[in-house]
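re: ur msg from earlier - yeah i can do the flavin-adenine dinucleotide complex, just paste it... oh wait u already did. ok heres what im feeding in:
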Amino acid sequence: MRGVQAINLEKTSTYIDGDVSYWYRGSGIPQRRPALAGDTSVDVAVVGGGLTGLWTAYYLKSAQPDLRIAILEKEFAGFGASGRNGGWLSAEPPGELRRYAETDDVASAVRLQKEMFAAVDEVLRVLEVERIDAHVQKDGLLHVATTPSQQARLVKRMPRMRRYGWGEQDLTLLSASDLSRRVKVAGAVGAAYSPHCARIQPALLVRGLAQVVERMGVAIYEGTEVTQVQPSLAITTHGRVRADFVIRALEGFTAGLEGLKRAWLPMNSSMIVTEPLPSSAWDEIGWQGAELVGDEAHGFAYCQRTSDGRIALGGRAVPYRYGSRWDNRGETMSTTFDQLRVQLARLFPATRSVGIEHAWAGVLGVPRDWCASVGLDRATGLGWAGGYVGHGVTSTNLAGRTLTDLVLQRETDLVTLPWVGRKVRKWEVEPVRWLAVRSLYLAYHAADRRERVSNSKTSAIATLADLISGRR
Ligand SMILES: Cc1cc2nc3c(=O)[nH]c(=O)nc-3n(C[C@H](O)[C@H](O)[C@H](O)COP(=O)(O)OP(=O)(O)OC[C@H]3O[C@@H](n4cnc5c(N)ncnc54)[C@H](O)[C@@H]3O)c2cc1C
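and the outut:
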């Protein structure tokens, strides 16, 4: 943990940088569970103790209590994106539905979307049944347009959303004045509201779920790094684990495994959180509910009002580090902090005089076609799930249930969803990968700047960047 002096817009603050994330401030970084104590064998070995691994273990053990399951985790359960995210438990699909429809069909893409709607409520159901208090409040999601070009994109997106299962009640356009009755976002020209989203406190969710699966009899070995995954075998720093099924649940950390460096790009996303806002600031902003708020910029900012009266805001200021590397325990770069601070003040001017208490970063997984996948090769017993492109909080639950059905050979609707077994080409080799991703995000930021002062057209730079990146 280190304190950093930063010049805020109207206030200098000392903030904590990294230390995994703000979400652990209340509870403290969990004490590590014991590491694996030598070679062993189980029915299912899960590599990675984030939400993908934990949900998979939860549903497998619920379905078949006698299964022997081991979770192998390099740090502690919840160390990764699952304990660092923005807390949007949303029904946003993990990638463009149009893309899934290209390889399957529109009806399959619609099924995936319907499962995402249902998954939000499934998570809430489990939290209630298992008595996990993760500061949940389901007040929906506001996509806010802060420029005419963002508004034009929102409006243009509506027919596409309708085509893929978003009915009138699932996504509604709001005027600027409708929006301001809920939240006052500076310069907002309109918004779209979806009820399918709940605010969660990420560390409480992942930590609570880890305790539940442990109570169910799943072994969680922490401080245990998996160095190689082979058919029926996970090789760790503390011994070899033989298993009928080995499930890779590493998302943004996948590049750390041998042979998988170019599979999913480890994309950085960073967040800042303010000190508690004074009531005068809340009077100015409104936001009495717990709606999640995001803008429609190409650089995309996402926010939540925390249960303790702060604003947490995230974005992708410096999205990628050379050679698919990632942060050290969540430490951010100072340019990232500055960009997020400015974004926050731009959206909510009342925060100009409010200090920032914590900044952190994390990695999420981005496949070359920006679409998630879940799969199991029955011949080798190797399974995987991830590449949720920043929409993993809900998708991990759906992925965990899907992996369960695949492992148990159940012929359910889940195992025929269009993300099952999806394979995509690898990312480019370095330095092309670094140059491409850095240039694309520079282009997106330039496009956002241009759109702030221009008419209602999406900047041509962004359209070109979308084409090259494969993002839309
Ligand atoms: C800053 C940020 C904000 C985000 N905000 C949102 C949001 O608001 N809503 C949303 O839907 N999604 C969001 N996401 C994405 C979402 O958090 C992730 O997609 C999701 O948590 C992925 O879960 P996971 O279990 O697959 O991976 P992770 O949570 O990353 O878990 C992987 C685990 O594997 C462990 N590990 C790594 N290497 C090894 C190894 N070699 N051996 C063993 N273990 C290893 C790690 O320590 C980690 O615990 C955000 C991501 C970030 C980084």
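cool cool. The CA atoms of residues 345 and 371 lie 32 Å apart. ping me if u need the other ligands too
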